[in-house]
Amino acid sequence: MGRPPLNSRLAEFGTTIFAEMSALAARTGAINLGQGFPDVDGPESVREAAVRALRDGRGNQYPPGPGVPELREAIAAHQSRCYGSLGLTFDPDTEILVTAGATEAVAAALLGLVEPGDEVIALEPYYDSYAASIALAGGTRVPVTLRPRGGAADQHFHLDLDELRDAVTDRTRLILLNTPHNPTGTVLTRDELAAVAELCVERDLLAVTDEVYEHLVYEGEHLPLASFPGMRERTVTISSAGKTFSFTGWKVGWAMAPPELLKAVRAAKQYLTYVASGPFQYAVAEALALPDTYYAALRDDLRAKRDLLADGLRGAGLEVFTPSGTYFITADIRPLGETDGTRFCLALPERCGVVAVPTQVFYDHEAEGAPFIRFAFCKRTAVLEDALTRLKSLSG
Ligand SMILES: *Cc1c(COP(=O)(O)O)cnc(C)c1O
């Protein structure tokens, strides 16, 4: 054994923090508010649609490479329904690619578009798969840090547009943008997105946008970057059924882009999974056609849970950044006299029977993220209440 088994591209990436913290939850019997998966499945009609597809033999063999036509048409229709008024529509045959979740779509976009040595800008703290996917593509990640800003009542994480502009170099290939943003809950505003768009056009950059929380917006509105002037031709828009329909295990995602860009994504995707989730693709096609009332009810339910958890965490002595979107709350542990989120989260299950995730692991500038931890509120109300009762002992 001369060389260590893990290659140098992945050497810095151990087990994902979610696996580690979920194992800790299982071992200690703590309530898991770490990993972001709902504890109740999505609509019964959608689950039944998957059963029907399986029974009817639809999708049990390799589906077509780009995804089954029914799903690509449903994605196109959903896109027109939600963003058609912004002029953003996609052709189901040439501009939509079904993937194994948004995770594969992001990986394939980076593998297909990035040349070794290219720089990729991502908002920090970033979703953990981004760093690994950029590394696998041979790219260099350039984090731009979101920082807390605003008054006590309205603290949120904010994108510094000057810092973003300064991060662009002659080697920058693309900006990987996530809004609504996990883990901070920030939803970029129209003005911020317009500035990002201008920068991309001015510096001739591509954009890859992760919009998996497009329907989980409580304040403001979700605007796809691709709908801004000059962006449609240079943007790969990514979303997924996991968060929107509470079936995170199905792994049905999609990428949307003009034909030439999408071909590059597809070139990589076909040698990753080739295809995935056959019968689930038919079920997600039905899910996307659910009426607006479904999306509104999901949002209202999660907004109430957000408010419950935010109030409770404040009551437990944490500083809370109320998220405008996603199903995560980021909190600052410094009011408790703590400074190291990783140590805090490792001790939390023993201390009060709750699991949270240290946000530090989503930073390159680790010191910036040290005092922040993330809680997921996509859980039953009784579970959140139980967790909050347990967390009360923190301030005591
Ligand atoms: C959950 C999540 C994903 C993963 O989506 P899948 O469809 O499960 O692959 C991607 N990006 C962000 C920001 C997420 O929170």
Automatic annotation (TrEMBL):
It is found in: Cytoplasm. Coiled coil: none annotated. Keywords: Amino-acid biosynthesis, Aminotransferase, Cytoplasm, Pyridoxal phosphate, Transferase. GO terms for biological process: amino acid biosynthetic process. Its cofactor is pyridoxal 5'-phosphate. Its EC number is 2.6.1.17. This is Probable N-succinyldiaminopimelate aminotransferase DapC. It comes from Streptomyces boncukensis. The lineage of its organism: Bacteria, Bacillati, Actinomycetota, Actinomycetes, Kitasatosporales.
